[in-house]
Amino acid sequence: MDNTLSKAERTRQFIIETTASIFNTKGYEGTSMSDITEATGLTKGSIYGNFENKEEVALAVFDYNYGKISTDIRQRIEKAKTFHDKLMVYAAVYHSFTRGVFPVGGCPILNTAIEADDTNPALKERAAKAVLRWKDSIAGLIQGGIDSGEFRSDADQNQVALSIIALIEGGIMIAKITDSPANFDEVLKTVEMIINQIKT
Question: What is the pTM of this model?
Answer without folding.
Answer: 0.87
